């Protein structure tokens, strides 16, 4: 009973403390409110956007882990399907088949449209891969937006395949260009069979694995079921990994920035809290309070303030977060399940904030509670270090600053260490703001440079599969025959270690396996080679980096040779490849450098396909990386590429304009996140800075009394205080800008591999300057109270 009365008394004392220091109490509660709200919303935004991004990426690539098919996309035997279905670790399996089928909008219509048609088993993986959502019946058809626009079709309209009638049930639009360049349709496998008037099987398999199983083991098991199956593991796709890794890094960096600013915010605001209540607790000890009672009172102070801030932050985050994510759902392409605040995540972050602050206060309390009362009261938390005036900077400042500004400077310099957190907050906020905005601007510029480097010509055509060179070359020739624009093939052939190069001086040049092969004549027709070339077969292009490294210039002669080549390493790959190269006889030829190309376009050197070295290679050699470039996107080229999908089902093509539109959309989303985050952090840090500034003014009350007693007017003392505050602001901003420029200058933009120096732009920090100067106005009362002293 007595203990309960003691607790009530101590509780009452704690509440009285909080009431008497309303400004400090409200500041601390707002601090915790802002921190918990920012952390909840930031981590929820990270989780929601990442979940949506991953799901959108998985839908683009297909929500499956493994795709299996024959190289020629022939029918997969039913026995093989049964074996694959029985493999341990497979969670879900869907099958399908495809072909080019003509459709008409009217039975009397004379002309038909050739479409790329998928016959599916109506499984979830097929719907995810081809981005349709309705379950198909045998009389329903899904079409893509391009077909709908071309034939003025809408949901509910009728189309015909032969004599069979279908109703359009859904129109899909692939935002990532997988199908927007072809007429695309989806029907059931039964309907597909009726159109073809024959029994059909499956030409591809989509597999979702169990997360507890290793996909490499499942891949080997599938291969054992049919050694002819080509197996693609989605997460092994370099494109998929690149997208996911870059986005994860982007969101993780933003989350780290929020955590750093939040910690500085708490430390800045609660510094004043700890200074004040350490003195108050010392007074209580002097008045006879026990250590246990002081600990209880201090703990209750922390619990009330932290609890009120965390609770209000939690409730506000739930309400504001759901509204915010609903409004921004379209902007960020949030999926349905990523448009709300996860209560468990919010509770977890709230608990972490509460526990973190309480642990911090508990550890701090040990620094004064166990001391004797006079020891605690002796240390008021301020520094007594005097201004020395030594050093070149100090002497220069003493000569140039007016009298009052010099006094402010002399008072501020010894206190720099004491107010380190206040300055550090401004430095970090400026650095993050400057780096964030400038880096997004640089990424936008470099994004254009990057894609201009990849897109040698207006249209890029490729897929993720490797083929024999003869097959890809035939594809290129066929496209060239059918299209009314210039087309050329660029291939990276894995023979680089067998090619040696020597300058006329005899010095050997090592290109590091960076050899590409392409028709220089066709590159010249597209305007990619500016020089006049009389002998294409004995001409090469070399990258700017290699030219500088080996001191090579246009017109130099280089001898290329494969006479010492050893291609026996192919034995480690496949027996067929080894047999192909087993009896290879090397050749030697002299070529002329006819042009210098940017480093990010082709490999180190481009050799003409009519060169003796290239002609000596087996035409059935494997090509791992290849691209076909077309000079202009035309209707004939579009039709030709649609037809090419019969043999290259993973074939994709995009024009430079299309890929830039998609890229700019992604950059716009990221820029919006960065700007919103920086404005919120600026406000949060500004509030923390005001509290720190108020604490600084209060801690120097004695100095201001001395200045007044020495005869200085109230107006001059106020000016000295304002000068100090402005000095702290601009010193922090200046240091932040210098740090920012150095970070950006050294930061290699990993998304693009392009480095550019960054110039100072004052516009990147204008809102910080304006915000902090406006917040200074809230300190007028504090300044007035500490200066208005009777002398």
Describe it.
- With about 800 residues, the protein is an alpha+beta fold.
- The protein is about 55% helix and about 15% strand.
- The chain has 26 helices and 21 strands.
- The strands form two sheets. Strands 10, 11, 12, 13, 14, 15, 16, 17, 18, 19, 20 and 21 form a twelve-stranded mixed β-sheet that branches.
- α8 runs parallel beside α11.
- The radius of gyration is 35 Å and the shape is globular.
- The chain starts with a helix and ends with a helix.
- About 0% of the residues have low confidence.
Q: What characteristic shape results from the CA principal axes?
A: globular
Largest sheet: 12 strands, mixed
Mean pLDDT: 76
Identify low-pLDDT runs: 176-180, 748-755
Protein structure class: alpha+beta
What proportion strand?
A: 15-25%
- Count of helices? 26
Count of β-strands: 21
How many whole angstroms does the radius of gyration measure?
Answer: 35 Å
The amount of helix comes to 40-55%
- Terminal Cα span: 52 Å
